[in-house]
Amino acid sequence: MDRSYALALKDAKMKATPKRLAILEMLNSQSAYLSPEEIWKQLRDSFDRLGLPTIYRNLEELAASGVISKVIHPNRQLYYYLCSNREHHHHFVCLSCRKVEDIPSCGIETLEQEISQRTGGKVLSHILQLNGLCGGCAAAGGTP
User: Fold this and answer.
1) Which of 10, 13, 80, 123 gives the lowest tally of CB atoms within 10 Å of its CB?
2) Tens of pLDDT, residues 48-78
């Protein structure tokens, strides 16, 4: 297993268990987002005992600590993606091939100022995910 996974878990104050490390390795080996069921099907033969609830729990813990990213699909299912970019950014998600691309700019500052002026409130965080078709899928006539 890659030592950087163990370090990422340590930075997130999480134990580097064999199952967590295997999940991170699985996500890192893909250029697309995966469902918990897909991860479980690929890893279940690697462990004596590995249930789908264990996969769900670990994915939620990894996402909550910022080690992995959630992809919220229009079908309302959650998917997960290992993003190596630790800077503030957002994602463009291809609904056809499942590729996830970083969007380096944010552009939310203007909206945050408007919210502050209108409501007197303060935005503490935000999540922005853009869904569509990547260039390759759009050119090939792909569908979500």
Assistant:
1) 13
2) 999 999 999 999 999 999 899 999 999 889 9
Q: Is 129 exposed, middle or buried (0-12, 13-18, 19+ CB in 10 A)?
A: middle
Q: Are residues 43 and 100 in the same domain?
A: no
Could you report the per-residue pLDDT of 84-132, keeping only the tens digit for each? 888 888 899 999 999 999 898 888 888 899 999 999 999 888 888 999 9
In angstroms, rounded to a whole number, what is the distance separating the alpha carbons of residues 139 and 42?
A: 31
Which domain CATH number covers 94? 3.30.1490.190
Considering the domain architecture, whether residues 73 and 107 belong to the same structural domain is answered as no
Q: How far apart are alpha carbons 38 and 48 in whole angstroms?
A: 18
Same domain, yes or no: 57 and 74: yes
Range of the domain at 99: 87-144
Specify whether 128 is located in the same domain as 139.
yes
Q: In this structure, what is the dihedral angle of CA atoms 138, 142, 143, 144, given to the nearest 10 degrees?
A: -70
Angle at 68 (CA atoms; ends 73, 5), nearest 5 degrees: 150
Residue 43 near residue 54, CB atoms below 8 Å? no
